[in-house]
Amino acid sequence: MEKIFKNEILPLKDKLFRLALRITLNRQEAEDVVQDTLLKMWARRDEWNKVNSLEAVAITICRNQALDYTKKAGRGNLSIDVDRDCPIVANDPSVQLEQKEGLSMARDVINGLPEVQRSIMVLREVEGQSFEKIAEDLGMNESQVRVYLHRARQKIKKSLSIV
After folding, report:
1. Cα(60)–Cα(20) distance, rounded to whole angstroms?
2. How confident is the model at residue 79 (pLDDT cuts 50, 70, 90)?
3. 16, 34 Cβ separation under 8 angstroms
4. Phi, psi at 112, each rounded to 5°
5. Radius of gyration over every alpha carbon of the chain, rounded to an integer in angstroms
6. Per residue in 35-74, is it b (16+ CB within 10 Å) or e — as a string?
7. Which of 139, 156, 153, 117 lies closest to 57, judged by CA?
8. What is the CA 48 to chain-centroid distance, rounded?
9. Over the stretch 17-62, which tens digit does the pLDDT of each residue have?
10. What is the mean pLDDT of the chain?
11. Global pTM?
């Protein structure tokens, strides 16, 4: 069991940390989430042979832990930081301002999405994960992931076209 933990679960630490950080937006909390996730994985070591993917289980636990941390802290949902996640590269100050305002509107729309749609958007568009991997990680089938992503994109498109 220790060998499986060291070879299959511990190498996921960085990936789990990135996921937790995207949800909690707090480095210390993200580290705590990863620690809690690893402890929960170890506590469930008797069930490892019953699951297809230890990575999927770890990601699900991590995601749920991170969401619990944000709820307890009263912060609510994942938020995208325009300055950090989408750097402005234009040289003209008026173009920079225009780009920043557009990104700010997009951020507000994305942050207003239901949690499942927002999570899928981040995993697909920011992390670049495949539909198959997202479905596995979130415990859905691929068609559900595609539907949620389509709905999220439609909401974003509709909200941004009205403005």
Report:
1. 11
2. very low
3. yes
4. -85, -5
5. 18
6. ebbbeebeeeeeebeeeeebbbbbbbbbbebbbebbeeee
7. 139
8. 24
9. 988 887 777 889 999 999 999 999 999 999 998 888 888 889 889 9
10. 81
11. 0.55
